[in-house]
Design brief:
Layout lengths: L1 E6 L5 E6 L19 H7 L1 H6 L5 H12 L5 H26 L3 E8 L7 E8 L1
Antiparallel strand pairs: 1-2, 3-4
Length: 126
């Protein structure tokens, strides 16, 4: 038996006694959750999309339903996948920027003819 206290309308305490407590919950769970935002979905499946960029959004939806017990509409899944792909493209651009260094090409050739010698050439591309 549990006893609870509640404040009355005029400041007095009202005591409530619960005689039976039922731990059974008969309501069904609602899986269509509008609180699962695109940013959250993209963060949860970012590694999966990075490892397999051509993954179908239905697979992401199935995994979301299986792991987190959340079902969202297909548009939100497409937006989450595109957001993860944009992060992947951003990572690629950042890595590619480190690869872009000035290129110096050096070449030479032997000259034939009355003067002979070697002609050296250097080209800088930035």
């Amino acid at each position: 038996m549990q006893v609870g206290m509640i404040m009355g309308p005029h400041g007095g305490l009202i005591f409530v006694i619960i005689k039976t407590l039922s731990d059974q919950h008969d309501c069904h769970r609602v899986y269509n959750n509008k609180e699962a935002k695109v940013k959250w979905i993209a963060s949860k499946f970012e590694k999966l999309v990075k490892s397999n960029p051509s993954i179908d959004v239905k697979v992401i939806g199935d995994l979301l339903r299986e792991i987190f017990k959340v079902s969202v509409d297909i548009r939100r899944l497409y937006r989450a996948k595109n957001r993860a792909l944009k992060e992947l493209a951003k990572d690629h651009a950042q890595c590619f920027r480190y690869l872009m260094r000035p290129f110096i090409g050096v070449d030479g050739c032997h000259l034939k003819g009355p003067f002979g010698g070697v002609l050296q050439e250097a080209v800088l591309e930035s």
